[in-house]
C-alpha cells in the first residue's frame, strides 16, 4: 500500500521532500500536486518506473506523451533544441504557470525518449512539485490522473485519490485540494505558437 504524506505548498517539509525523492530514486511512482490537476510521476531516468506508468495509462512507452516537469528554465537546454529569443521571452512570461509547452527535443534526451521528436515541458507554479524536482536533480515525467467518472474528469480530493490509487503507486502527496482544469498546451515546435488545448493557462498571453 502507498505511503500518504501531507505537505504544505507555502513551506514543504524538507524531511518529507527527501522521503519523496528517495521513493523516486528507487523507481517508485508518486502522485503529487501541481498548479492544475494532480499528476502521476516518476524519475525520467528510470526505465522500469516509466514502463509502469505507461502500463497504467494503457500505452506503449515509446508511444506515450508524457510531460517533463522541471523546477525552472535553466535545465531546458539539456532536453530541447536551441531556443530563440522570442520563445524564451514567452517561457519567462508564463512559467512557472499552468502551461505545457511542446518543444523539439535534442540528442541529450534520456534513453527512453531518444526517438521522440518533441517533448512537453512543464514548470508548475507549485512549490511542492518544483522542490521535489530540484532535490531529485532531474525532471520527473508526469501525466494527469483522470477519473473514471464521466462527469468528473479529474479527482481533486487527495484522500479520494489515495483511496483509488493506493495499490498502484508507492506514495501519494496530500498538497491540499487540486484543480479540476488541466494545463493549457501550446506547441512551440513549429514556426509559430499553436494552442493544442485550452486549459487553466490564459491563452491571450500568447
Automatic annotation (TrEMBL):
It comes from the Bacteria. This is Translation factor (SUA5). SUPFAM superfamilies: YrdC/RibB (SSF55821). The gene is yciO. Residues 14-201 form the YrdC-like domain. InterPro entries: DHBP_synth_RibB-like_a/b_dom (IPR017945), Sua5-like_dom (IPR006070), SUA5_domain (IPR052532). One of its GO terms (molecular function) is double-stranded RNA binding.
Amino acid at each position: 500500500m502507498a505511503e500518504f504524506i501531507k505537505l504544505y505548498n507555502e513551506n514543504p517539509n524538507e524531511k518529507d521532500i527527501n522521503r519523496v525523492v528517495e521513493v523516486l530514486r528507487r523507481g517508485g511512482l508518486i502522485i503529487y500536486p501541481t498548479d492544475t490537476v494532480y499528476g502521476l510521476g516518476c524519475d525520467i531516468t528510470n526505465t522500469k518506473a516509466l514502463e509502469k506508468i505507461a502500463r497504467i495509462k494503457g500505452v506503449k512507452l515509446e508511444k506515450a506523451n508524457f510531460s517533463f516537469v522541471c523546477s525552472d528554465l535553466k535545465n531546458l537546454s539539456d532536453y530541447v533544441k536551441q531556443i530563440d529569443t522570442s520563445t524564451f521571452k514567452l517561457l519567462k512570461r508564463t512559467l512557472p504557470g499552468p502551461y505545457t509547452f511542446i518543444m523539439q527535443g535534442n540528442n541529450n534526451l534520456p534513453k527512453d525518449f531518444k526517438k521522440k521528436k518533441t517533448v512537453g515541458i512543464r514548470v508548475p507554479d507549485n512549490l511542492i512539485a518544483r522542490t521535489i524536482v530540484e532535490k531529485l536533480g532531474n525532471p520527473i515525467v508526469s501525466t494527469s490522473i483522470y477519473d473514471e467518472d464521466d462527469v468528473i474528469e479529474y479527482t481533486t480530493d487527495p484522500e479520494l485519490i489515495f483511496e483509488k490509487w493506493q495499490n498502484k503507486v508507492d506514495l501519494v502527496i496530500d498538497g491540499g485540494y487540486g484543480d479540476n482544469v488541466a494545463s493549457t498546451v501550446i506547441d512551440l515546435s513549429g514556426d509559430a505558437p499553436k494552442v493544442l488545448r485550452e486549459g487553466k493557462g490564459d491563452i491571450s498571453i500568447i
